[in-house]
Design a protein that fits this description.
By secondary structure, the protein is an all-alpha fold. Helix content is 66%, strand content 0%. It is elongated and about 65 Å long. The relative contact order is 0.07.
Length: 134
């Protein structure tokens, strides 16, 4: 494949040299040529779907978008709440000794989790926004 050149491997490797914008453009161009030649039948059948899939995979493979990365505990908590568990049940599962906390500690934990879930629900799905692709 064309994108498996020595230069491409070096750019992906642990080289210490600063990579210029032109190097990135050349590498991506070689990568696109390789995709076009290898998947030409798929590209001919559904060009928009193929491009969408490639962009989705690249977005997943590269570092996360701006901002704080997702907390796996919060992801699990949101999923449990969506499955019908109460916030208190989720806190009991996630915080060891939750029932032994004083009233104010339980209040703060519950308030924090409710606020985090609310922020997560209000957050727009930024993966498909045009600003994030470029």
């Amino acid at each position: 494949m064309e994108y498996k050149t020595a230069k491409f491997r070096w750019l992906l490797g642990k080289g210490r040299r600063a990579v210029s914008a032109q190097d990135v453009e050349d590498t991506v161009s070689q990568f696109a040529k390789g995709l076009k030649s290898r998947f030409q039948d798929r590209l001919a059948r559904d060009p928009a779907g193929f491009k969408k899939q490639v962009l989705r995979v690249i977005r997943q493979a590269l570092p996360p978008r701006r901002g704080r990365p997702n907390d796996p505990r919060l992801d699990a908590a949101v999923q449990m709440v969506e499955q019908g568990k109460t916030v208190k049940d989720v806190l009991r599962l996630q915080i060891l000794g939750y029932d032994n906390l004083d009233t104010y500690g339980r209040y703060l934990a519950e308030k924090g989790l409710r606020a985090a879930i609310s922020r997560r629900r209000r957050r727009p799905d930024r993966d498909d926004s045009p600003r994030n692709i470029g």
